[in-house]
Amino acid sequence: MNELNNENKIQLRQKQNEKAAVVAELTDMTKDPMKTQKELLFKILQDNKDTEYGKKYNFADIKTIEDFQRNVPVSVYDDYAPYIEQMAEKGERDLITVYPIQIYNKTSGTVGIPKKIPMTRPGVQVFAKYTRDYQAELLNVILGAEKNMGRRISIIQASAPKIMPDGIAFGALSDSTLTKARPMWDKAFATPAEAAFAEVGTNIRYIHARFALCVTDPVNINCSFTGFVSEFFRYIENNWELLVKDIEKGTIDDSIELPENVRSSLLEKIKPMPERAAELKEIFEAGFEEPFTPKVWPKVVSLSGGASGSFRTYTELVKKRYLGENIKIYCRGICSSEGAFTAPTKLDSHDSVFLPDSVFFEFAEEKDGEIDLSHIKTLDKLEIGKKYELIITNLSGYYRYRMRDVFLIKEMFNNTPTAEYLYRSDKTVSIMGEKTTEIALRETAENAAKACGFDLIDSTVYPDTDNTRYVFLLEIENIPHSLTEEKVRDEVEKALSVANPSMGDKLKKGLCKPVEVKFMQPEAFLLWRDIAVMKGASPGQQKPVTVISNETQRKFFFSQTESFETIKELKKQKR
């Protein structure tokens, strides 16, 4: 594969120059966020006053934020589902929004009927502004435009959307955006389109790794979420000999599963590269005690993607084991099918600032595990150090909608709060009323891993209400020789007691049974995600299963466990 040539660099530079100065624009808005917030809210209400929803709640008579909060109730998805079905199935319009629907976002859930989250043209525009243009410009501002000029290693995958009876696509917005970029794909990315738009039966991880290793010019690694980058690096580490052999000979090993047309297309793009193969062999034979990214791709200066919240474990593993200290991480702000909510103002930080022109924000405070909906606050009334559940009014027909996302308010950026995403308020775990949050479960697994000295690849928890105990299922690597199963269990229980003192008190008093720990077969979590994609879930929207919440998940994950001694032996053989 050719390095990025001058013509392509000129095209990329022109694209960058076309972007609005969104970093400066956001900085200016954060000085008086409520001015922008009020303008946005009253534009939404005025534009949508004649919709069915607007008439029901008298949008035309709303003159103040207090009027809005009195007239319009806090809502959930079921309040909109009948309208959305009429829109998607019958083509009816002006029910919840007058703005043109561009796509129905498909939620990432794999159990039950996926939700259809409408996103209008104005909603897509502001979403793209902060998830694409702002990211590119902030990296230029902090790292320097020249260092950020070049191809990306793109660890993403798209799937074709379904077309609803009203003619509008039903799928992931990211998939639709990627499809539009396909004609220019090979110029912008080191990884080929055959991986991003994969056919059934394609070994995507091989293609990403095989082609990325051929080049030295990438400046950025781009992903939907850092879990995918973790998989990418682990694939290289476990299969580098096969990959180097194929790069040397200009081949694709017969053991790699690929449709024949895809294999033929890829073979046309490659040639023998014995010199590059020799370089890679020398790097990998030296071992993996030090991060290999700076050696393999010396121009990479950043990784960008969803890196916070439930992805934080993967982010820390990738940073420590594969990137090293000098490669910066752009922890993409919090966004969802309903809109973009925050954006970072610096690199290597899980904090991000609220976006005043994206959605109208309201917040319900979290107190002792409960969400207090009796005193809902606006963006200017938040207190540093407190936790709040997010409520939004967006450009796509949702009004005072409970997102169920809980944020910790960290500090002020100018006059606008910054926050860190913590957990979903509807995903707390309880076997005896103790209400353990997702972040507490995540911290339990991470802190136990640090205390025991192994690398935590992934984890989930099963709240075993029948036996009144928590079962932690861990996928681990680099296990110390002297580590025992009893030590792991003790450290998990100790960490859980710290993360949730209420649970610790119950364990101490013997009111519930001791924590149980099970150990997962290698790549069990990877297999779960692959199965979900095979069943139609969007590849780019796969979230970690932090809590086993249904029988399908329970049967799968418990079927993928092994004894601790077997796992230790497997990892020893790998080394």
Strands side by side in the biggest sheet: 11-12-17-16-15-13-14
- What is the approximate shape? globular
The termini sit apart by: 32 Å
- Count helical runs: 22
**Main sheet makeup:** 7 strands, antiparallel
> Oligomeric form of this entry?
single chain
Q: Low-confidence segments, ≥5 residues, pLDDT <50?
A: 1-18
- The amount of helix comes to 40-55%
What's the alpha carbon Rg, rounded to whole Å?
24 Å
Give the strand content.
Answer: 15-25%
Overall pLDDT metric? 91
β-strand number: 21
**Secondary structure category:** alpha+beta
What attributes characterize this protein structure?
disordered N terminus; 575 residues; 41% helix; globular; 22 helices
Show the helix and strand layout.
Elements: H1 6-18, H2 22-29, H3 33-47, H4 52-56, H5 65-71, H6 81-90, E1 101-106, E2 116-120, H7 121-143, E3 152-155, E4 162-163, E5 169-171, H8 173-181, H9 185-188, H10 193-196, H11 204-212, E6 220-225, H12 226-249, H13 260-267, H14 274-285, H15 293-296, E7 302-306, H16 312-323, E8 328-331, E9 335-336, E10 339-340, E11 342-343, E12 352-354, E13 360-367, E14 370-378, E15 387-393, E16 401-413, E17 416-424, H17 438-452, E18 455-464, E19 469-477, H18 485-499, H19 501-509, E20 516-520, H20 524-534, H21 551-559, E21 561-562, H22 564-574
Parallel strand pairs: 1-5, 3-6, 6-7, 7-8, 19-20
Antiparallel strand pairs: 1-2, 4-5, 9-10, 11-12, 12-17, 13-14, 13-15, 15-16, 16-17, 18-19, 20-21
